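Notes, Module 5: Reading structure tokens.

Key idea: the token line is not a picture. It is a compressed description, and you learn to read it the same way you learned to read a sequence, by spotting repeated patterns. We will look at two proteins. The first is printed below with its tokens.
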Amino acid sequence: MSLRWPFLSLSLLLSAPAFAEDGVAVRVRCTEKCTVTLDQKTGRRVDDSTWEFKGITPGSHRIDATGLMTRPLAGSFVTIPDVASADIFLASNKRIIVEPGSTTMPGTPQWAEPTPPPSPSTSTAPSVVIVKCRDACTALVDNKPGIRRDTRTWEFQQVTPGNRRVEAVAGVFDRQQFLGYVDVPGGSKVTVQGDSQGRAKLVETQELSGVQASKSPAAAAKTSLLHVRCTKPCTVTLNGQRRGTSNATNLTLRDVPPGSHDLQVDFTVGGKQRRAKLDVPASHELFITTSEDAGVQVTNTKPLSGE
């Protein structure tokens, strides 16, 4: 059964609108646990009362919301503005659209007021930049290599705040995956990825604690990466602590400090166990193969930073 209620529409006063490049990110929030569809398609549930839809084309779209036992809450068409993100709030027989950075009309309920964007960082402390690629790559920040965390992830410590050049290349001929300039705030950990048009984009920002921000490059770059390959499904334990998932054949152990470590591999089928003591150097990548017959073997070792 479809229930249509009249809606109250609020005009938006945008001081500095950000236009959508890859569609609008739409969030719909109810006052109770609900299920929301946009154009009869289900989005991603953020929590019991919030749903998210990404890549929505600006314009008129159908929104329907139901509560417990599929009880209709609201249903009508809504106009999505051409902005980067828009929030839709459902309250009894009303819908209120609030775009971050806009000014709401008098009478807007407190719960529907948009959360103000965080103030720009004024810290001058160095930051950490994580560059993630779709495929195996080599990443550079200001033409300098960082620390390879895995084949698609690079980490750069002690990055000076400001506009930084981020580039990722792949393959024997250094085919460019993406390139661009990213504004890195001070004292933060930021994640950079490439978009569909080959541009570097800042996708996540986290504030570093005082301890993290003050780490020296030498201390930050000490940990190593262990790639463990089993010939059969296995469970890997390092220093008595299980790492990764069970019944896997390929595991990557991150942030392993340098020094002596006890590696134990339990094969799921047959129950055989193989052990070895590993001498892990600082800031290196170790490739380890384990079999029931040959035991634990380190097949290759190479530095994490640079290539």
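Here is the second protein, with the sequence above and the tokens below, as before.
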Amino acid sequence: MIEVSRTNGEIVIMADVESRTLQPGPIRATGFLLSNIVFGVIGFGLVMTTIPFGLLTLVFWVGILVLCTGLLLLRGAAQVHRTWLHTWLGVYIARPYRVMPTGAAARLRTLLTDGATWKDTIYLLLMFPIGMAELIGVSMLWGIGLGMSTMPLYYGLFDKGDEPQIFHPDFVVDTFGEAMICSAVGLLILCMAIIVVPAVAKAHAKFAVWMLGPSRKIMNGDRESTPRAAALV
């Protein structure tokens, strides 16, 4: 966990004062990794539409409205993802944003100059390729493992010439012995999935804490976050 203390109005974040570590189970880790593509699609769509259009139309002033709307939507999506992380993995990430002052011009300046806004944007943009890779990798790992491990239960249901093919057209499973070999390999793949999938989820959570959480260095006391930093709990 990360300890936070206040000194003269400043928030000091001290890392790793408690040795509790994140250990998500394979089911929760799988659900989290499979769902990340949703945030990736939303984030990629928002970044690639609102920000370029806003920058191109800044000269007409309407671009400011479009750009600010896009950044606020990205902030909202990032906050939903923080909640999603806490729901699935038990990871709490404090809001890192600066408190919005009064006045439209001051609010606009704060939004555009807050580094947390742009870290949210970069994170959600990266979530598209990362989420796609996680979706494909996790689906293949569990799918191949389950399909091969249960091969003895259904290999005999196929007609002659339609038997299951494993990795290569010449490797056709048409005997019980071959099905048992496939089952043993499938069980090994499932054991690997039980270890690998939570490890990937843990790595993603740490990356999210780094990108979406408050900075580890001393921050000014004008952040929206409470005196509770991003922590793996």
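Summary for the second protein:
- Residues 20-217 form one domain.
- The helical segments are 26-56, 62-89, 104-113, 115-149, 151-154, 176-212.
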